[in-house]
Amino acid sequence: MTPAAAGFPRTARLLSPADFSRVYDHRLNAAAGPLVLYALPNGCADGRVRLGLSVSRRIGKAVVRNRWKRRLREAFRRLRATLPPGNDFVIVVRSGTPPAGAAGAREVTESIASLAARVTGRRGYAEAAARPAPPPPPRRRR
Known about the structure:
Helix content: 25-40%
Number of helices: 3
Distance between the termini: 55 Å
CATH class: Alpha Beta
Structural class: alpha+beta
Strand order of the largest sheet: 1-2-4-3
């Protein structure tokens, strides 16, 4: 893979809140350890795979959050060619410190690959983009 192909260009990112909401609203996800992966077919004719990251302040200070994001972007760079084409993925970190070292990088990469395979392999996944998002649950008044 050439260095340019291994990068993380704007076309490979989910940038707008509307893109994130569209993926979240369809509620197609899988979780393993500290990671939750949401996925949705994006309908792009060129089959591009896009990624969005969500690492909240609950995870830790900026150093920890940025370490998670670097680890996840690197795993995505390595996996992008092998992920199912034409999908948008959002990865949410639930807790914990990022795994360290080469073994940690391998662990995160394998986790993302298996989560993506689990979500995209579900029955009815391919039709998910065509159907409207389910209505939000009713809000409880306090």
